[in-house]
Design a protein that fits this description.
The chain is mainly alpha-helical. The protein has a single domain, classed as Winged helix-like DNA-binding domain superfamily/Winged helix DNA-binding domain (Arc Repressor Mutant, subunit A, Orthogonal Bundle). 54% of the residues lie in helices and 8% in strands. It has a two-stranded antiparallel sheet. The chain is globular. The C terminus is likely disordered.
Length: 96
């Protein structure tokens, strides 16, 4: 598995709970995180209003604010992946 930064993990958690009412265990399996890390991330997302906890069902659901985060994250990822590489400088001579 490749290295994932904090934003990538958050986006994966939001995608896991996107439109579904999922339990903590499902998020753990979908995102490949330990129970402790999953609880920390979910707690952070609840505090920031990106995900909500439905107490009666003991499930999580992505909020509208979380959906906006996902939309922006996907757009940025598309820009990064779609960016052409810079052409190399002509190797005619040395600058020294």
């Amino acid at each position: 598995m490749k290295y994932r930064d904090r934003n990538e993990i958050i986006a994966q958690i939001l995608e896991s709970a996107n439109g579904n009412r999922v339990r903590l265990t499902r998020i753990m399996y979908d995102v490949y995180l330990s129970h402790t890390l999953t609880k920390e991330y979910v707690r952070l997302l609840i505090e920031k209003g990106l995900i909500e906890y439905l107490d009666g069902e003991r499930t999580f659901k992505t909020t509208v604010k979380g959906m906006n985060f996902l939309r922006i994250h996907d757009r940025v990822q598309g820009l990064i992946v779609g960016t052409p590489t810079r052409p190399r400088a002509q190797e005619q001579g040395s600058f020294l």
